[in-house]
Amino acid sequence: MPALPDDLPSRVLGGSPDAILICDPRGTVRYWNAAAERVFGFSATEALGASMDLIIPERLRVRHWTGWEATLRTGVTRYGEGQMLAVPALHKDGRQISIEFSIQLLKGAGGQIEWVVAVIRDVTERYGREKLLRTRLKALEAQAALQAGARPEEAGKEAEQPLSTSARE
C-alpha cells in the first residue's frame, strides 16, 4: 500500500463540502476553506485575520465569547465529542442563516489550547422546512382539537415541541 501523500491533510480540508474554520485562541480566523466561502459569502482574503464576529450575530456575541473564554480556561466543551451545535450565523449579505457545527480543540505540548477547529454545515433550508412542518402540524392539531371540543387556547399545544433536539435561536 502506498504511503499517504504529504499534502493529503490540506487537500481534505480544502476540498471538504463542509465549511472548516480554524481559529487561534483569540478567536481570529486563521484558516477558511472554499466551503466556508460558499456558506458565509466572505472570501478567504476577507475572513483570514478577522474576528469570528464576522459570522456571529451581534445579539449572540457576549454569550459566544463568554463560552469561548470558559472553554479556553478549562479546556472543556460540551460540543467536542462530536455533538452538533445548531445556531444562527451571519452571511456577508447580512441575512441570518442556520448552521450546525462540531468543534475540536487542538492542544499544544503544554496542554494549552492552540487552535479551535469548527466543521460547519449550512442547514438553513432544512430548518425552514422543519419550521413549516411544525406550523402545519400545530394548525392541524388545533383544528382537530376544536372539532373534538377542546378550548381554543389548548388546541395545538403538542406541536410546539421541536422536531429535533438541536437548540436554535
Could you describe the 3D structure shown?
The protein has 2 domains: 8-122, Beta-Lactamase (2-Layer Sandwich); 127-160. The protein has a 5-stranded antiparallel sheet with strand order 2-1-5-4-3. Helix content is 34%, strand content 22%. The chain is elongated and about 70 Å long. The longest helix has 24 residues, at 124-147. With 169 residues, the protein is an alpha+beta fold.
Quick description:
Helix content is 34%, strand content 22%.
Key words describing this protein structure:
169 residues, alpha+beta, 2 domains, five-stranded antiparallel sheet, 34% helix
Structural class: alpha+beta
Strand order of the largest sheet: 2-1-5-4-3
Q: How far apart lie the N and C ends? A: 48 Å
SSE string: HEEHHHEEEH
Count of helical regions: 5
**What value does the average pLDDT take?**
86
CATH topology of the largest domain: Beta-Lactamase
How many separate domains make up the residues? 2
Shape: elongated
| Beta-strand content bin | 15-25%
Q: Give the second-level CATH assignment, the architecture of the largest domain.
A: 2-Layer Sandwich
CATH homologous superfamily of the largest domain - what is it?
PAS domain
Indicate the CATH class of the largest domain: Alpha Beta
* Biggest sheet record: 5 strands, antiparallel
Unreliable stretches, pLDDT < 50, 5 or more residues? 165-169
Q: Helical content, roughly?
A: 25-40%
- Radius of gyration from the alpha-carbon trace, in angstroms: 20 Å
